[in-house]
Specification:
Blueprint: E1 5-8, E2 13-19, E3 22-27, E4 30-36, E5 44-52, E6 63-70, E7 76-85, E8 90-95, E9 106-111, E10 118-128, E11 133-134, H1 142-162, H2 166-178, E12 184-189, H3 195-215, H4 221-232
Parallel strand pairs: 4-10
Antiparallel strand pairs: 1-2, 2-3, 3-4, 5-6, 6-9, 7-8, 7-10, 8-12, 10-11
Helix pairs in contact: 1-3, 3-4
């Protein structure tokens, strides 16, 4: 039988350590077990930063904050993390489009428990900045990640073709590549990816570039015209990108 160590988190919330990778959080009669599964053993770690529980089943105040750290020597370009439990297995896919998650750096991600009693997390697929990968890709989100990244590259290339002023072209590309808005996140049901979602990934990449152009302040007629032009060329359901 596994031993349990009770650690006081606050007056009302306690944490029970089941093992190196499992914890139990409790508040009143509400209990939540969180388990981190490292299979396959990719050089990445997850820890629990905070847990908010509420014994009242009629509220929606519960929240899990995770901290993810890149323990490899290469930046992470994208990952698919699976969260599962007794009711709602989900795939969380994050694409670092502007700058990878560099070695030794961390990001925090929030998850809502949905009143589950048990939650487990593991990485199904990781794409590194040098093109190498880790994970078994059982949920096949690699195709969605690749579709998005390739389409974003095409959208930026087309933008450069459309911009007459090379100074403006350089500035826009640099701003897009350094914008926090460049990241893309999706969360959907675990299992094989929805075919329609996969087809729409290139379209979403273009839409995100266009949305950023339209968010630039102050408004500029030239940039607005560029956004309007790109919108007419958005690839639909796997169409080839227009380059005329």
């Amino acid at each position: 039988m596994k031993s349990r160590l009770i650690v006081s988190i606050s007056v009302a919330l306690t944490l029970t350590v089941l093992s190196i990778n499992a914890q139990v959080f409790q508040k009143g009669d509400r209990t939540l077990e969180i388990e981190f599964v490292q299979e396959p053993p990719c050089p990445i770690t997850i820890i629990t930063k905070s847990v908010t529980l509420d014994p009242d089943p009629n509220t929606d105040k519960e929240h899990i904050m995770l901290q993810i750290e890149n323990r490899s020597n290469v930046g992470i370009r994208a990952y698919s993390m699976v969260s599962g439990g007794n009711r709602y297995p989900t795939v969380h896919t994050w694409i670092f489009t502007t700058a990878p998650l560099e070695s030794g750096k961390t990001v925090q991600r929030g998850v809502w428990p949905n009143r589950q009693e048990h939650y487990y997390f593991f990485f199904d697929y990781i794409l590194y900045a040098d093109g190498t990968v880790c994970g078994v890709n059982n949920h096949r989100r690699a195709i969605q990640i690749e579709g998005y990244l390739q389409a974003r590259k095409s959208a930026l290339s087309r933008l450069q073709e459309l911009v007459v002023d090379p100074t403006l072209s350089t500035r826009l590309i640099e701003e897009l590549d350094s914008s926090a808005a460049g990241g893309f996140f999706s969360s959907d049901k675990a299992g094989p990816p929805n075919e329609e979602t996969s087809k729409r990934m290139p379209q979403r990449a273009w839409e995100h570039v266009i949305a950023y152009l339209r968010s630039i302040k102050p408004r500029d007629k030239t940039i607005t015209a560029l956004a309007d032009k790109l919108e007419t060329e958005i690839p639909r359901d796997g169409e080839e990108v227009k380059t005329n």
